[in-house]
Amino acid sequence: METVTIDILNSKAVRLLHDLELLQLIRVRKEKSQTETQINWSEKYKGAMSKQPLSNIDNQLNELRSAWE
Fold first, then answer.
1. Residue 56 per-residue DSSP state
2. In the prediction, which pLDDT does 35 show?
3. Dihedral of the CA atoms 41, 43, 35, 10 (nearest 10)?
């Protein structure tokens, strides 16, 4: 068995592929999109923020919280 990825350019091609599947010549599988697969958020945003001392982060959080009050 061989796996091939194709791009559908015309809706008629989908019907043809469905017919080939009914004849048991091929099997059509849809790929999972990135939203369906689990996203590794720590890898995606690794290094997005610069390292800061904990005291600076606490001060920024306190300023944000006081702004909402």
1. H
2. 57
3. 160
